[in-house]
Amino acid sequence: MLMPDPVIPGTLVNEYERLVAGRHLTVLLSPDRRPRDLAHPLCVITGSRGVRIALQVAGRHLRGTTALVPPAATERPR
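Above: the chain's sequence. Below: its structure in token form.
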């Protein structure tokens, strides 16, 4: 699996969180395109479909606790 340089997701996470600090989750519906422009590569890098999961996965990766694997991909089939 390809692993991005930690600077890339770290920069995206920091800028996204700075832009949405104190705002509601409807930030992706706002006229400001920058949060959406940051959310897309975060989702791609982490293999996630939503920005909340992407932020969680990137955060775990940046803390060195796991690889960039979305939670659903680590669940066992039933």
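The first helix runs from residue 7 to 20.
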